[in-house]
Every structure is written in C-alpha cells, then in structure tokens.
Automatic annotation (TrEMBL):
Its main location: cytoplasm. The keyword Disulfide bond does not apply. Pathway: Amino-acid biosynthesis; L-tryptophan biosynthesis; L-tryptophan from chorismate: step 3/5; Amino-acid biosynthesis; L-histidine biosynthesis; L-histidine from 5-phospho-alpha-D-ribose 1-diphosphate: step 4/9. It catalyses: N-(5-phospho-beta-D-ribosyl)anthranilate = 1-(2-carboxyphenylamino)-1-deoxy-D-ribulose 5-phosphate; 1-(5-phospho-beta-D-ribosyl)-5-[(5-phospho-beta-D-ribosylamino)methylideneamino]imidazole-4-carboxamide = 5-[(5-phospho-1-deoxy-D-ribulos-1-ylimino)methylamino]-1-(5-phospho-beta-D-ribosyl)imidazole-4-carboxamide. This is Phosphoribosyl isomerase A. CDD domains: HisA. Belongs to the HisA/HisF family. It is found in: Cytoplasm. One of its GO terms (cellular component) is cytoplasm. Keywords: Amino-acid biosynthesis, Aromatic amino acid biosynthesis, Cytoplasm, Histidine biosynthesis, Isomerase, Tryptophan biosynthesis. GO terms for biological process: L-histidine biosynthetic process; L-tryptophan biosynthetic process.
Length: 240
C-alpha cells in the first residue's frame, strides 16, 4: 500500500497566512506571512505545499505577487488553488512553477473550458470538490454548484486526473475528517483523491491513511499544524 502524502496548507488572505472556519469569510485567524509559513513547512520536511489564494477564491482581489515570490523559494511540489477560472489566471498559476492547480468554481460554472484545459494540461489539473452533504460549493463556498456525483462522473469522463475533496463543514473545525465521504468518492472514481477538512490529530491522519488502498492519495493539513496539535515531523512519521 502506498504512503499517504501530506500537504500542509498555506491559505492567503490580504497578504497573510490565515485559517478560516468552514471557509467563511470573516472567520480568519492570522498566522504571519505566507512565506514564513511555507518555509516552515518546507524546512520541516514537507514534500508538498497546498497553497490557496483566498482573495481570488472570494473575488476580493488576489495575492498573485506574493504567490509568485513565495514559489521562487519553494523546492518542494506546490498545489495552487483559488481563482483559477480562465486562460489568464491558469497561465499565471502555471507560470509560478507549481506542480498542479486545483480548479473549483470553474469546474461547476464553465464545464467546457475545464474539459479543454484537462485535455491540454493532463495531471497538472486537479479539481477541488468542495461539498456540503453531497452538494458542491463554488465562489468562496458561497454558491451551490450541483451534485457531487454527477459532476464527478462528468469530470471523470473528461479525463480529470485527480480530485481534492473538502467537507466544507469540517474545514477549520478540528472535528475530524469525513471518512465516509472519502470512501464514497473513492468508490465513485478510479482517480486519486486528496482529503481535506477536519484533521485534528495524528489518529485522524492514521485513519485517512487506512484509505490509501481505496484511492486516497493525500491529506491536506491546516489548522491542526498552525495550532500545534502536532508537528509536521510527527505527522510525516505517523503516516510513514
Ligand atoms: O481553502 C479554503 O479554506 C477555501 C475557503 C473558501 C473558498 C475556497 C477555499 N479553498 C480552495 O479554493 C479553491 C476554489 O477556488 P475557485 O473556486 O477555483 O476560485 C478550491 O480548491 C478550494 O478548496
């Protein structure tokens, strides 16, 4: 069985590394500069960084320059999310040298464009499936975007390489991952799944790691790291 990949998260709002509760704008807790956070995870042994431009996701601006500068200092793989919705934003994201991008809103609102970029860029494109129950959310998780399994079937048929599955109601809450959701999504697709939302403990990571045989490839870890529930070194050891 393959080892669970860990992706520490750096979410950026107004130039700061922040954590939100259930993705709600206005619930930010700041944790210093994005570069300091990213370097801390890189120096602690991260193989991946999950980097989110929250302003771009919410439509309140962007943090492109910070992301460009930060990316120059990363020698680990970066997955970049937030506001990637057209050719220009996709080109800017890929120009940072990131390993892959996550599309959210675009996958719900612009299916033809998403099918086109999946065909053009292959596994550089992942889709973030951000859900409440089985209903997808877009536009900073404020709009409803259809049924999870219908959209998943459409994206699968278009060759989408990977899905990042977030239970919105667990994100930033430290209440544990939604293992049932992860199992259900893995049963519905052959493509790898990255788990997001709710991780609070090393046991949560061990529980997600039991799903690697079903298709869970990685887990995003945010608030638990920022609130020192465990260290990244401990997390990497726990899933090794
Ligand atoms: O990560 C978050 O906390 C988050 C909160 C609210 C909205 C989006 C969030 N993150 C990721 O951003 C992309 C969606 O951006 P877009 O819709 O493509 O502009 C997606 O990967 C979310 O998981």
């Amino acid at each position: 069985m393959s080892r669970l990949e860990l992706l520490p998260a750096v979410d950026i709002r107004n130039g700061q590394a922040v954590r939100l509760v259930k993705g709600a704008s206005g619930t930010e807790t700041s944790f210093g500069t994005p570069l300091a956070a990213a370097l801390a995870w890189q120096n602690a042994g991260a193989e991946w960084l999950h980097l989110v431009d929250l302003d771009a996701a919410f439509g309140t601006g962007d943090n492109r320059e910070i992301i460009r500068e930060l990316s120059e200092q990363m020698n680990i793989k970066v997955e970049l999310s937030g506001g990637i919705r057209d050719d220009a934003s996709l080109a800017a994201a890929l120009a940072t040298g990131c390993r892959r991008v996550n599309l959210g809103t675009a996958a719900l609102e612009q299916p033809e464009w998403v099918a086109k970029v999946i065909a053009e860029h292959g596994d550089k494109i992942a889709v973030g499936l951000d859900v409440v129950g089985t209903t997808l959310r877009g536009r900073g998780w404020t709009s409803e975007g259809g049924d999870l399994y219908e959209v998943l079937a459409r994206l699968d048929s278009e060759g989408c390489a990977r899905y990042v599955v977030t239970d919105v109601n667990r994100d930033g809450t430290l209440t544990g991952p939604n293992l049932e959701l992860l199992r259900n999504v893995c049963a519905a697709t052959d493509k790898p799944v990255v788990a997001s939302g709710g991780v609070s403990s090393l046991d949560d990571l061990r529980a997600i790691a039991t799903l690697t045989g079903e298709g869970v490839e990685g887990a995003i870890v945010g608030k638990a790291l920022y609130e020192s529930k465990f260290t990244l070194e401990e997390a990497l050891e726990a899933v090794s």
